[in-house]
Q: What sequence folds into this?
């Protein structure tokens, strides 16, 4: 089924009159589709007018919203209003040609007003599959300069009304906005020089620096927040093409000196400081632009109070966190004390039960070490080098049960503390070995015999795990 045929499926639920108009529009598109596919929409006389765009001015920007039910976030509520899940709006542009950066900035501000508290994502160009977007945005004249085949999917979406007109951003109002910006900027400068404006403003210096020089002596964090996070930062990026890189707190004299040295890209300060800067700039050849943004003392105070309140909340939360951490540490220490006391009590019981048996294993082990070939080889090598035994002590490492050949045997790990001496060298060396075995009393055999260095904990644990060792000496 072709896309045009699929469009006919949208007739269900429409009035008879709407369905008839839709069929007529589809028929017109089908009739000229082949002949106009490579022509510009605005120049092809055969192409039927796009009704959705008839009342839109040439340079206006329009936003069409996806109400097909396939949009990632857009939907209609019970009242028929368009809403967006999770306050997310995903848009794409309906033409490749890029608008003037000031127009794009103005469009962004308008969209933010249309959709307050929403996050708006915008891709440079729509892909072939419009269901990936909540809406398509374009300037009418640039859209109509494209070939039909480039925007076929968008036109079909208009025709079957799966995308409907949501907002129109007037180009005439944009031009008025630009004029107003210039008027306000000039008025701010004149007011400061006439001594009739109080508060804070900013000048963008037309150079390669991206450092903000702040002429302030109090509430520094408030002013830094206003410059770095607010409209001033956005305007700076719009005019100079990138964000401010850093902020310096300076005096009026240093701000003027650094401006001459091209190390201030923006000057921000109070009305009295800016008056001095304006007068001084008239004596040197430095181009600047006054921003149309003015910050009142009330705005600064409000920002400062928010910062202080946030810092206070942060400190209080940190103190509460530390207090809770100390509380948990005390509780953990008490828990460990109780756990340790319980463990020691259970170990004492185990050792009372198995103490004599373990003692027998340890006391008799001195004659068994010769049955461990690796140890015997090591000892022979030491003796050939002139080493001889000096002291030896056997102590229990662990005792319990192991699973071997579907039977339960006694398992034991015995540590041997050994000191050897060399008379020729006049020296001693200390060693510790762990000997493992599974005692098979039924067949009078010792099994799973290994000798390891005492600090080879990993190998000892591997031996235990492999035999499903269950300790009757150490309580967990």
A:
């Amino acid at each position: 089924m072709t896309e045009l045929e699929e469009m006919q499926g949208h007739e269900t639920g429409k009035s008879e009159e709407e369905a008839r108009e839709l069929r007529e529009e589809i028929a017109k598109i089908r009739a000229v589709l082949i002949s106009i596919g490579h022509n510009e929409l605005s120049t092809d006389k055969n192409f039927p007018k796009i009704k959705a765009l008839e009342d839109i001015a040439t340079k206006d920007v329009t936003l069409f919203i996806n109400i097909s039910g396939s949009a990632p976030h857009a939907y209609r509520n019970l009242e028929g209003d368009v809403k967006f899940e999770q306050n997310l709006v995903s848009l794409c542009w309906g033409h490749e040609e890029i608008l003037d950066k000031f127009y794009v900035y103005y469009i962004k501000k308008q969209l933010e007003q249309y959709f307050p508290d929403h996050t708006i994502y915008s891709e440079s160009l729509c892909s072939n599959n419009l269901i990936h977007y909540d809406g398509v945005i374009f300037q009418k004249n640039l859209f109509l300069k494209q070939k039909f085949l480039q925007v076929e999917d968008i036109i079909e979406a208009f025709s079957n009304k799966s995308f409907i007109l949501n907002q129109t951003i007037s180009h005439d109002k944009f031009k008025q906005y630009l004029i107003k910006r210039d008027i306000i900027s000039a008025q701010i400068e004149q007011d400061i020089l006439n001594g009739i404006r109080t508060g804070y403003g900013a000048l963008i210096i037309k150079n390669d620096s991206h450092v903000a020089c702040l002429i302030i002596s109090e509430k520094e964090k408030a002013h830094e927040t206003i410059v770095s996070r607010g409209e001033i930062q956005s305007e700076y990026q719009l005019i100079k093409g990138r964000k401010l890189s850093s902020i310096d707190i300076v005096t009026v004299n240093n701000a003027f000196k650094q401006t001459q040295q091209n190390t201030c890209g923006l000057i921000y300060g109070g009305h009295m400081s800016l008056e001095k800067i304006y007068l001084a700039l008239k004596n040197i050849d430095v181009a600047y632009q006054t921003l149309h943004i003015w910050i009142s003392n009330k705005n600064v105070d409000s920002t400062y109070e928010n910062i202080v309140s946030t810092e206070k909340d942060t400190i209080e939360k940190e103190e509460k966190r530390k207090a809770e951490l100390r509380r948990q540490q005390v509780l953990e220490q008490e828990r460990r004390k109780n756990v340790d006391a319980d463990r020691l009590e259970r170990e004492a019981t185990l050792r009372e039960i198995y103490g004599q048996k373990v003692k027998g294993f340890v006391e008799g082990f001195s004659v068994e070490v010769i049955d461990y070939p690796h140890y015997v080889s090591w000892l022979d090598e030491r003796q050939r080098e002139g080493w001889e035994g000096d002291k030896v002590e056997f102590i229990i490492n662990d005792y319990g049960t192991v699973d071997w050949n579907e039977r339960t045997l006694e398992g034991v790990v015995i540590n041997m503390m050994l000191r050897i001496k060399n008379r020729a060298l006049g020296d001693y060396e200390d060693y510790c070995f762990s000997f493992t075995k599974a005692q098979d009393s039924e067949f009078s055999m010792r099994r799973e015999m290994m000798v390891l260095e005492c600090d080879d904990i990993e190998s000892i644990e591997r031996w235990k795990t492999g035999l499903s060792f269950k300790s009757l000496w150490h309580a967990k």
In short: The chain has three domains: 3-169, 180-295, 360-471. The radius of gyration is 42 Å. The chain has 13 helices and 17 strands. The longest strand covers residues 387-404.
